[in-house]
């Protein structure tokens, strides 16, 4: 949407199950068609604006007429008006973990949950999490950790890894466990150097090779029990510290294939939970180098080496950008890199890398057309149309996967897949689908909530059902997650956290739905996963704190059940019941067919019952699957988790950045010696002196 080349990224629909590959050369682009002349913009019709070709002469007025159809963004609206400083608005973040963040508990979200629960139990849990986060981010390193950090700060003190026997084992483990999933190296070429007698000379003369070699060893050593959930501890981190020590020098190197391969290897290691604090620095620089080298015109084996690095970086950088909520470095409209042929990333005829790349492209389209701040001022119809298009693309992607444990919703479960690497890949693919399906359907509900049209009731029910199916799949698959330091942060924490909080919000906002008790069981399973994470990390990652949300939800449902067992007459005469919103008198309609009783209001809602946005817009309810939607225009309960995000992408956005606690920071760390190195040049008055910590939600 930000470039006239966006049509190149939205080609004509492909046959079912085949999603177009990004980056075809200009020679094979589809013929340009006339651009859309009406809003909202449809992704399925976005095209390149026709320009003079083959000597065709066109008048300036024709070109200007076409140019008026280029869609505008929020920045265009901001620049088209004069605003005083106090009128400026602020929109927090890009991506799913920007304004759509499920793991971020703002003051508004806490107030909404407290009002619903009738107590401050969630505030207390989040308060304890906030204290732990602050403690972790201000923690000073132990003596052993400090030795590694000091060595990294002064790379002349770093000792290269010289154990050739161990190195050979780590390289073998790397190519057996890491390479099939992230195949950016050519094994024969790398091993011919890494295992040769000339290695010492190369490490002396080539800083990129020092970084590449030690990053590969660090990745392989994690599969030999040398990894750690905590930064600056363990043998793997000690090896990786050598790469980090020379990273600032790589920043000054000219763009080259060895430099790109080194940064790609470091990016792969940074996907682990121990590198959450520094991942963005390494990943963004690697992606920038990959895009810079696009014009190098590599040929032969060099072209293959480049395309491997480029596309692996594209996939993981798009995923990280989406998960963390930042803008992607890759400009998709400028991509023309051909896809590599990688047999190592093929499992029984299934091209894992190609499927991963196609998914990354869907993520990129979602970031561009749905989750970026540039479309914040688009009408509800635009967002609904866009989500519908993305749903179709996601479903096409799902159907393109083989039904042998890799296809979500297939007849064969992923746990039946043979081989640890294959099973890990199957679990990863299932998680990618479930997470994206959860996000898109949640976004659909977000905008359906803002619509008063009762005709959308089926869409609400379908979206709600898909959300619960996705959460159920995510939680059920936690038993297949390898709770190990080498498992990337998306699988280990980010995606399970998203599912847990969606289930939590659903239970709290809809405690009488038929699915409540199954959702409580799923919450307990998710809580068990995070408790297992704390156990396996020896308390380094305090995941058991997250299990308290399950306890809060179950306690609330029990209180509702106890209140419902009291006769209606006693209810009205009883003292305050803090388990429900004040001012609402509820009456049950019995059912003889086993269906959960329907809850209706016996009096108009009090003013304090209505959840309001910052613009004063009254929220409408989203019902659960199987529930009925009232025909009246009376206000009813919003779907869990929708009330605190409506204003984020609405017409009247808060002028202040949201303050609060991000639960995901439980797995983050502050590296006082590494951060000044990676952010070199920043003065102490900006807070990079390593002595103070500022926590911003």
Spatial sequence of strands, sheet with the most strands: 1-6
Shape: globular
Number of strands: 6
Tally the helices. Answer: 23
Characterization of this structure:
Keywords: DNA-binding, Nucleus, Transcription, Transcription regulation. Residues 279-346 form the Xylanolytic transcriptional activator regulatory domain. InterPro entries: AtrR-like, XnlR_reg_dom. It holds the Pfam family Fungal_trans. One of its GO terms (cellular component) is nucleus. This protein starts with 5 loop residues before the first helix and ends in a 19-residue tail after the last helix. β2 and β3 (350-351) form a beta hairpin. The longest helix has 30 residues, at 420-449. 48% of the residues lie in helices and 3% in strands. The protein is globular, with a radius of gyration of 27 Å. α6 runs parallel beside α11 (234-252), α19 (489-509) packs parallel to α21 (547-564) and α20 (516-536) runs antiparallel to α21 (547-564). A two-stranded antiparallel ribbon has the order 1-6. Strands 2-3 form a two-stranded antiparallel ribbon. It is an all-alpha fold. Among the domains are: 1-71, no CATH class; 141-341, no CATH class.
What key attributes describe this structure?
mainly alpha; two-stranded antiparallel ribbon; two-stranded antiparallel sheet; globular; nucleus; Xylanolytic transcriptional activator regulatory domain-containing protein; DNA binding
């Amino acid at each position: 949407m930000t470039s006239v080349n966006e049509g190149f990224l939205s080609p004509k629909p492909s046959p079912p199950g085949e999603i177009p590959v990004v980056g075809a050369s200009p020679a094979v682009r589809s013929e340009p068609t006339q651009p859309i002349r009406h809003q909202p913009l449809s992704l399925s019709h976005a095209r390149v604006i026709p320009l003079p070709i083959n000597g065709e002469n066109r008048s300036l007025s024709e070109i200007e007429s076409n140019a008026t159809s280029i869609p505008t963004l929020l920045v265009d609206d901001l620049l088209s008006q004069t605003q005083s400083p106090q009128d400026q608005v602020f929109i927090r973040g890009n991506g799913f973990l920007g304004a759509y963040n499920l793991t971020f508990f703002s003051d508004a979200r806490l107030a909404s949950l407290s009002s619903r629960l009738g107590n401050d139990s969630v505030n207390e849990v989040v308060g304890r999490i906030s204290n732990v986060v602050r403690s972790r981010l201000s923690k000073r390193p132990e003596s052993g950790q400090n030795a590694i950090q000091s060595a990294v700060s002064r790379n002349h003190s770093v000792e290269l890894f010289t154990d050739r026997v161990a190195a050979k084992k780590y390289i073998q483990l790397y190519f057996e466990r890491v390479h099939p999933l992230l195949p950016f190296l050519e094994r024969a070429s790398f091993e011919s150097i890494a295992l040769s007698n000339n290695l010492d000379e190369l490490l002396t003369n080539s800083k990129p090779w020092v970084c590449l070699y030690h990053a590969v060893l660090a990745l392989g050593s994690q599969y030999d029990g040398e990894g750690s959930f905590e930064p600056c501890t363990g043998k793997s981190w000690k090896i990786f510290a050598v790469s980090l020590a020379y990273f600032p020098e790589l920043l000054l190197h000219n763009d080259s294939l060895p430099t790109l391969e080194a940064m790609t290897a470091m990016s792969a290691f940074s996907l682990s939970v121990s590198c959450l604090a520094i991942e963005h620095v390494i990943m963004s620089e690697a992606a920038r180098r990959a895009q810079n080298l696009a014009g190098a015109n590599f040929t032969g084996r060099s072209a293959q080496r480049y395309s491997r690095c480029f596309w692996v970086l594209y996939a993981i950088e798009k995923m990280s950008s989406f998960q963390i909520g930042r803008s992607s470095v890759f400009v998709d409209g400028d991509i023309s890199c051909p896809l590599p042929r990688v047999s190592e990333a093929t499992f029984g005829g299934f091209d894992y890398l190609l499927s991963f790349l196609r998914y990354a492209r869907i993520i990129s389209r979602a970031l561009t057309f749905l989750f970026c701040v540039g479309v914040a001022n688009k009408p509800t119809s635009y967002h609904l149309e866009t989500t519908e298009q993305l749903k179709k693309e996601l479903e096409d992607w799902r159907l393109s996967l083989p039904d042998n444990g890799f296809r979500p919703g297939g007849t064969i479960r992923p746990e039946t897949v043979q081989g640890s690497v294959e099973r890990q890949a199957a679990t990863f693919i299932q998680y990618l689908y479930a997470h994206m399906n959860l996000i898109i359907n949640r976004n659909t509900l977000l905008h359906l909530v803002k619509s008063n049209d009762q005709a959308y009731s089926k869409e609400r029910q379908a979206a709600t059902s898909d959300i619960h199916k996705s959460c159920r799949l995510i939680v059920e698959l936690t038993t297949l997650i390898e709770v190990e330091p080498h498992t990337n942060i998306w699988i280990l924490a980010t995606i399970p956290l998203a599912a847990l909080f969606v289930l939590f919000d659903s239970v709290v906002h809809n405690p009488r739905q038929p699915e409540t008790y199954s959702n409580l069981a799923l919450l307990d399973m998710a809580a068990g996963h995070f408790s297992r994470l704390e156990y396996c990390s020896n308390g380094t990652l305090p995941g058991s704190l997250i299990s308290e949300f399950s306890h809060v939800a179950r306690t609330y449902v029990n209180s509702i059940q106890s209140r419902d067992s009291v006769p209606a007459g006693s209810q009205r005469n009883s003292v305050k019941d803090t388990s429900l919103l004040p001012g609402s008198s509820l009456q049950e309609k019995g059912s003889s067919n086993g269906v959960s009783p329907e809850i209706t209001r016996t009096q108009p809602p009090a003013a304090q019952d209505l959840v309001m946005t910052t613009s004063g817009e009254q929220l409408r309810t989203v019902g659960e699957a199987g529930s009925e939607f009232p025909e009246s225009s009376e206000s009813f309960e919003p779907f869990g988790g929708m009330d605190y995000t409506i204003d984020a992408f609405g017409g009247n956005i808060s002028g202040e950045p949201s303050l609060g606690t991000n639960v995901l920071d439980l797995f983050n760390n502050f590296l006082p010696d590494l951060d000044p190195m990676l952010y070199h040049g920043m003065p102490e008055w900006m807070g990079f002196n390593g002595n103070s910590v500022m926590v911003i939600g």
